[in-house]
Amino acid sequence: MRHNTCLFRHTVVVLLLSVAACGEKTATGENDSPQRSRSVPVAAAPLSYQNLTTRLEAVGTSEALKSISLFPEAAGEVVAVHFKPGDFVKRGDTLLELESRDQELALELASVRLEETRRLFDRYDRANRSVDLTVPETTVDTARTALETARIERDLAQVALERRFINAPFSGHVGITDVEVGDRVDTTSVITTLDDRSALQVTFDAPESFVGQLAVNDPVDVTTWRDSESTVQGEVIEVDSRINPVSRAFRVRARVPNEGDELRPGMSFRVALLLDRGRFPAVSEVAVQWGANGAFVWVAEDDKARRVPVRLVERVDGSILVEGNLAQGDMVIGEGVQSMREGIALRVIDARAVARDARDAPETRSES
């Protein structure tokens, strides 16, 4: 039905152009001057612009916003485990304790020594301020050095004690652990994993033809394979600076919110982006002609024909998006291009009015 309607409209345009040509020939007459150029009837429509968007689809793999494996900073025996797999922990929460009696005693001893050296230094300092007794400067300097050394030893003992406790460096969910109370661990033993999955980072590959079209903050639609009806919108946060010479693609990373905690790191997703490629002139398919130098269209300018070379961009919904020396409102010739040559006089028929008549004609016949 649609094909028949389009054919009918084309036939109406051709008939109108033929009638217009015959009428002009009769009006001109045989006695007209040979120098008088005949005007060619054509159907033209004002040039319009249309946005071009491209849909990019890819498969992405997710990872947590922050994700680490926890290792102890010191070796020792596990005396307490304060978490279960899957627990949500806050930053600073103690997850595991190692036996720390030696470190506690070392800290206590360092504190005692610090206090002793501080008292000695204060005694010398007060003596130097008195007129009755003066302590040599070398003795005061030695006491000051001993005080600073004792303070550093106390701080080192404090650090050694803190290393017996493994704390969460950020808030997140802990994973499975194989460590139990009584186990002996060292600095190469994995205690557990910690993931901040308040948001996920989805990494996917984009073809090299899209270089320059993807930018940070571009919206991204992410859909899980288990539920094609549920789509989450994220945004691009990183675009790689290199093209993989094997796959001819570059990596893109998007951030996706996970407020309901339904998504997990490691899941794969269907990723879709609508890329705005710009705004281009849109002409009808019949308006595009081909010559030795490529494609071109005819434009009616001051009732004369002007040939404009164009480059085809893409075919969209019955129209062709082009690039060329065209401006908004230019009258692009669609019917009658077979008789065109540069500078020929034209009599323009509004193609939009013809199209409206063609649409109304079948209705009129059906009513009659």
TrEMBL record:
Pfam families hit by this protein: Beta-barrel_RND_2, BSH_CzcB
Residues of the CusB-like beta-barrel domain: 202-273
GO molecular function, one term: efflux transmembrane transporter activity
CzcB-like barrel-sandwich hybrid domain residues: 69-195
InterPro entries (UniProt xref): Beta-barrel_RND_2, BSH_CzcB-like, RND_pump_MFP
SUPFAM superfamilies: HlyD-like secretion proteins
GO cellular component labels: efflux pump complex
Family note: Belongs to the membrane fusion protein (MFP) (TC 8.A.1) family.
Protein name: RND family efflux transporter MFP subunit
Organism: Chromatocurvus halotolerans
Organism classification: Bacteria, Pseudomonadati, Pseudomonadota, Gammaproteobacteria, Cellvibrionales
